[in-house]
């Protein structure tokens, strides 16, 4: 039952209580009028008949019983409405508590998922850093080896150039010596 339905039911119970109170006031007024009429009749007739008095006493007792029954029914209706309202409030509180717990659990799950994703990303970043460092080292090793090969090639070329130049000189000298 929603809070608005509960409030409507409580409002209706209050209206019934007010109506019963009005009825009680009207019955009291009627009772008082009857009592006054009885007193007036008794004063006017002075002794009245015993049957009339007994009938009026019965009427008064019946009205009192009706009034008491009305009060009992009103109190029972108020208690039933209050008990129903209290039960509805209890159920609503339990529902709110269950929803709060579900929301908290969802938040805990979300936080755990975010932390797991962050941890996985951090691990991936670390692995990528390690890979990047290895690639840099491999590149540096490759450059060093390439520089070494270039130096060896240059040294070999100079050596061959020197030998070729010596051969050319020797051949020139032979050529010039034979001419």
| Termini Cα gap | 129 Å
Class from helix and strand fractions? mainly alpha
> Which of globular, elongated, flat, extended, rod-shaped describes the shape?
rod-shaped
User: Approximately how much beta-strand content do the residues carry?
Assistant: under 5%
Overall pLDDT metric: 86
Q: Give a short account of the largest sheet.
A: none
Tally of discrete structural domains: 1
Spell out the helices and strands N to C. HH
DSSP strand count = 0
Low-confidence stretches: none
Radius of gyration: 57 Å
Total of DSSP H or I helical runs spanning 4+ residues: 2
Residues in helix, %: over 70%
Describe the structure.
This protein has 179 residues and is mainly α. The protein has one domain. The protein has 2 helices and no strands. It is rod-shaped. The termini are far apart. The relative contact order is 0.06.
What's the structural blueprint in terms of helices and strands?
Blueprint: H1 3-45, H2 50-178
Give me some keywords for this one.
179 residues; mainly alpha
Summarize the structure.
The protein is mostly helical and about 180 residues long.
């Amino acid at each position: 039952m929603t809070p608005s339905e509960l409030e409507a039911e409580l409002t209706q119970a209050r209206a019934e209580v007010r109506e019963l109170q009005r009825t009680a006031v009207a019955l009291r007024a009627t009772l008082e009028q009857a009592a006054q009429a009885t007193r007036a009749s008794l004063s006017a007739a002075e002794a009245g008949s015993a049957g009339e008095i007994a009938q009026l006493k019965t009427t008064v007792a019946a009205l009192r019983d009706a009034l008491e029954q009305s009060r009992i029914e009103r109190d029972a209706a108020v208690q039933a409405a209050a008990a129903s309202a209290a039960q509805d409030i209890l159920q609503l509180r339990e529902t709110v508590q269950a929803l709060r717990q579900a929301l908290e659990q969802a938040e805990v799950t979300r936080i755990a998922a975010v932390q797991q994703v962050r941890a996985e990303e951090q691990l991936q970043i670390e692995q990528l850093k390690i890979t990047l460092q290895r690639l840099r080292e491999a590149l540096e090793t490759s450059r060093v080896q390439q520089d070494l090969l270039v130096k060896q090639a240059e040294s070999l070329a100079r050596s061959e150039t020197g030998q070729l130049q010596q051969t050319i000189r020797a051949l020139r000298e032979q050529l010039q010596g034979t001419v």
